[in-house]
Design a protein that fits this description.
mainly alpha
Length: 476
């Protein structure tokens, strides 16, 4: 890796760190705030309803992700005209699809009987939420999800020119602002409907501001249709449809498991399960931080035909992810139970057993997720997507039956199933793409820079020791 790559990755790591911290902050702050101002059944209903609009993320049919990768690889080859053609083609496709989905969502929500929406959250509203509230919450949160599809493509404009650290930072600020806007009506005594509408409006405004900034910072990006092409859409259709499996799989894994626990054990169990998993996912955030840092550089290197650099990036990413996973898991098992008790205002038990089971899932997740970054970064993820959606779908069903028969600990243990399935496929495939061998890869896992070797570290530490003062005494 040359100095330019190292500099971009350093800035990328820092910006992704800010993004992950923002995500962790949102997850950690919302639990005590909502529990303080709302009762537990109402918060459980809010969590369950929150899980439903996430399924709208498939509306872009994966074109946002595939466009970002394609634009980055094209700019790696210096083909700006082709990158603009991809951007405009995907921008108008996503805009038209999302507009249609918003109109369809509004029609369905305000025409179908309210009893149908009650069944989505277990058939009852014990926390004080009305049928009208459910409709407006689903519409507002669904709109926010749809606008996030455009934000992804705007971020691609920064990524393809090597300014992904700045684009990631701006998106983090938008997320924090939207969350802060949502919290304000809650602290003022507002209910779920006001919080959801405020959150949706803040996301719409944030997307517009992000678009204005992208047009200013990347001058060759245009929002017209002069360079758009249906041929481009057809060429990208296969990998784009495959990318659609990841948000669906994520919804199965995250929101699907919440719904499974809700149907099996009720809203109070949802709060206990979701709260413990929120703490455990802090470790996942650190692994994903590594993945997001290496992703753009893998696209650039592969687009430029530099397979040697691709191989180095894949090895170093997997090595760093393994180290981060072990360190963060150890830390979370040390402070996690204490954190659970305090940030739930002592209203929920610490559940150390539940947290431990969830951390086991983190360990297996780190094994495959970082290696799969290479396949996703170069749009060779079609088979990977099939494995993922099957694995998470099976896991969601297993979570329901495990929770129904054995309780929350069994529900948490079932989450490991999808990670085990993914480990079987991912690493061998990534090694073939990087033209790597098992022997070379495993040796690289235990190799680290000369500057980090123990003797080098000790030498630097010795140089930091204070030098004894010379008081002018002479030896007799």
């Amino acid at each position: 890796m040359n100095n330019a790559v190292r500099k971009r990755m350093t800035l990328g790591f820092l910006s992704n760190w800010v993004s992950r911290l923002a995500g962790i902050l949102i997850q950690l702050v919302q639990v005590p705030v909502f529990l303080h101002f709302w009762n537990i059944p109402l918060y459980g209903e809010w969590l369950t309803i929150n899980a439903i609009p996430s399924y709208l993320s498939f509306s872009s049919v994966g074109f946002g992700n595939v466009a970002a990768n394609e634009m980055t690889m094209l700019m790696g080859r210096g083909d700006q005209a082709a990158a603009l053609r991809v951007f405009q083609s995907c921008w108008w496709l996503i805009s038209l699809v999302c507009t249609g989905v918003v109109l369809l969502l509004a029609t369905v929500l305000f025409v179908l009987p309210a009893a149908g929406w009650r069944r989505l959250i277990g058939g009852h509203l014990s926390g004080g939420m009305t049928d009208h509230d459910v409709r407006w919450i689903l519409f507002a949160l669904g709109t926010a999800v749809l606008f996030s599809q455009l934000e992804q493509l705007l971020g691609a404009a920064y990524t393809c020119v090597g300014r992904y650290p700045y684009g990631t930072f701006v998106k983090s600020i938008i997320s924090l602002c939207a969350f802060t806007a949502m919290i304000v009506p809650v602290t003022l005594g507002g209910g779920p409907r006001g919080a959801a509408i405020t959150f949706g409006a803040a996301n719409v405004v944030g997307t517009i501001v992000f678009g204005v900034m992208a047009r200013r910072d990347v001058p060759w990006i245009e929002f017209g249709w002069r360079h758009a092409s249906w041929d481009e859409i057809r060429r990208l259709a296969a990998p784009a449809v495959a990318f659609m499996a990841f948000p669906i799989g994520n919804a199965f894994n995250l929101q699907g498991s919440v719904l499974a626990v809700s149907y099996a054990l009720g809203p109070v169990a949802v709060v206990v399960f979701t709260t413990a998993r929120t703490v455990s996912r802090a470790a996942l955030q650190m692994v994903q931080l590594v993945n997001q840092t290496f992703w753009p550089e893998m696209s650039i290197a592969y687009g430029a035909g530099n397979i040697g650099l691709v191989r180095v990036l894949h090895r170093r990413a997997c090595q760093l992810a393994a180290l981060v996973a072990v360190a963060v898991i150890a830390l979370m098992m040390t402070v996690g139970p204490w954190a659970l008790t305090h940030f739930t205002l002592h209203k929920l038990p610490p559940s150390p057993g539940l947290l431990f089971v969830l951390m086991v899932s983190v360990f297996f997740y780190a094994g495959w997720s970082t290696s799969s970054t290479l396949l996703q970064a170069i749009n060779r993820h079609q088979v990977l997507a099939a494995w993922y959606i099957v694995g998470t779908g099976v896991t969601m069903v297993a979570t329901y039956f495990a929770a129904s028969r054995y309780g929350l600990l069994a529900a948490a243990a079932s989450l490991v199933l999808s990670d085990l399935i993914m480990n079987v496929y991912v690493l061998p495939t990534s090694l073939r793409v990087a033209e790597d061998t098992w022997g070379g890869f495993m040796l690289a896992m235990f190799a680290y820079p000369q500057s980090l070797r123990p003797e080098k570290v000790l030498q630097r530490l010795r140089r930091l020791k204070p030098v004894p003062e010379d008081h002018g005494e002479t030896e007799i």
